[in-house]
Design brief:
- A hairpin with a 2-residue loop joins strand 16 and strand 17.
- The protein has a 6-stranded mixed β-sheet, with helices on both faces. A 4-stranded antiparallel β-sheet has the order 10-11-12-15, covered by helices on one side.
- The N and C termini lie far apart (46 Å).
- By secondary structure, the protein is of the alpha/beta class.
- The protein is built from 11 helices and 21 strands.
- The longest helix has 22 residues.
- Helix 6 crosses helix 7 and helix 7 packs parallel to helix 8.
- The protein has 2 domains: 333 residues, 3-Layer(aba) Sandwich (Rossmann fold), CATH 3.40.50.12780; 98 residues, 2-Layer Sandwich (GMP Synthetase, Chain A, domain 3).
Length: 438
């Protein structure tokens, strides 16, 4: 894949919606021919459902093909691999947030695609060859994202410092020695870096860092206003925050531009649909499950894969010049939907309330099945300044916003962090689902 360093926005991303659709229709035909010839899983899916791929002429025709689920990947992992072992260069796994980790394989061509994706995604955030990026996420532990960031920076010609997660002291040592101007980090970890700086007399507000690419936690509410977590960061450290949404399965990122109105779609790399509970497309501005078809993937291509993430999408052109679809923040995950005392909730709605309470330092949200077989909510809260009325105040905040209040249990901040940032996990472990499986 070619990448023009003098033109950060690929030409296809500035075309009309009709032109983009026609472009993707042609890419889809090539994709269908490839998986029909190479993928055991999709060969059997087409045969079982009597699907003639020659009749799938456009994205609109995709509704005739059953979606692929995470259960399919778990149960038939190897049947999705489309290349011989000697072509495989890199093995990664999904995070396993909603189930067992799935193995994904990448060829040299896939790694080139991954680098291209991240280079143009960095371009969305106005990052170029003169920038230095400090990577605070892991590049090991079978993690695709860290590798993608490194390859994208290399493709772009930017510098990158592979510090990895944790160790605020080392983060600041790298910042002071090398003067990076971009962080790639989980938003809550940025607050930990700030807290370390404040305790140790580091003048972080006048450091070299000017912006951060944020993963794993929402910077925006569904209406695209800043989340409480993002506001807390901005109040402490006035750097520009860019949200990015991606997954191992899609091998593609949706990264915001400076206007912060949703992550930009790369139509040369992925087809994206937004489906309701019945598998039907939802209109613009309505929540739908992000369902993706990967383009130009060689090792493990996917067709109509349901990610489980619920997002709102927008089609109007952005002021940055891109005309592609934009994704809002993840409202929640289909499997994480909670039915609590007659109210339907997603965990991010709980997080936003907790992030807004000054006394709350950290927290873990747990859901389990109670004695009568319904969902029960418990929030473990770590706070530094406890007082007798705090439990009531927290519950009142929940009732005011959501009409219901969970059980509140107070714990040591250090104990919460041990659960939230386990050594074996690549993402913050904020939500624990202990519901009885049916």
């Amino acid at each position: 894949m070619t990448f023009n360093l003098n033109k950060i926005i690929p030409e296809i991303e500035t075309r009309s919606q009709n032109e983009i659709k026609a472009f993707q229709n042609e890419k889809l035909k090539t994709h269908l021919q490839y998986i029909a010839a190479k993928s055991k899983f999709y060969q059997e899916l087409f045969e079982k459902n009597k699907i003639n791929i020659s009749k799938i002429r456009s994205i609109d025709d995709l509704t005739h093909i059953p979606p692929t689920s995470k259960a399919d990947l778990n149960e038939r992992n190897n049947d999705f691999i489309c290349v011989k072992p000697e072509k495989i260069v890199d093995y990664v796994t999904t995070s396993g947030t909603l189930g067992d980790p799935v193995i994904f394989v990448l060829t040299n061509r896939d790694l080139d695609r991954l680098a291209y994706n991240e280079a143009i995604s960095f371009g969305s955030a106005d990052i170029g060859k003169n920038d230095i990026i400090q990577l605070t996420t892991t590049i090991d532990k079978r993690f695709m994202a860290g590798l993608a960031y490194f390859l994208g920076a290399r493709k772009l010609g930017a510098g990158i410092i592979r510090v990895g997660g944790g160790i605020p002291e080392l983060q600041w040592d790298s910042i002071n020695r090398i003067s990076p101007n971009v962080l790639i980090a989980i938003p809550s970890f940025i607050l930990r870096i700030v807290e370390y700086a404040e305790k140790n007399g580091i003048d972080y507000k006048n450091s070299s860092i000017k912006k951060a690419i944020c993963i794993g936690e929402a910077l925006h509410k569904p209406d695209l206003s800043l989340s409480t977590l993002a506001k807390k960061i901005k109040e402490k450290w006035d750097i520009h925050l860019y949200s990015t949404y991606a997954s191992t399965e899609m091998g593609t990122a949706f990264t915001e531009c400076k206007y912060g109105v949703g992550g930009h779609h790369h139509p040369e790399l992925i087809i994206v649909e937004f489906l309701d509970e019945n598998g039907q497309p939802v209109p613009e501005g309505q929540p739908g499950e992000v369902t993706i078809t990967t383009l130009q993937v060689e090792g493990m291509p996917l067709l109509r894969f349901k990610t489980g993430d619920i997002c709102i999408h927008y089609n109007e052109p952005c002021k940055c010049g891109r005309t592609t679809t934009r994704l809002g923040p993840v409202i929640g995950r289909r499997k994480q939907m909670i039915k609590f005392k007659g109210t339907t909730l997603y965990p991010p709605a709980l997080y936003d309330i907790l992030d807004h309470i000054d006394e709350v330092e950290n927290y873990i949200v747990e859901v389990f099945t109670n004695k009568i077989g319904t969902d029960e909510l418990l929030v473990r809260v770590g706070c530094k300044h406890y007082h007798d009325k705090l439990e009531k105040e927290i519950k009142d905040r929940f009732r005011a916003k959501l009409r219901v209040a969970p059980t509140i249990v107070f714990d040591m901040v250090e104990n919460i962090n041990k659960t939230k940032f386990p050594e074996t996990s690549r993402k913050p472990n904020i939500f624990i689902d202990n519901r009885t499986k049916t």
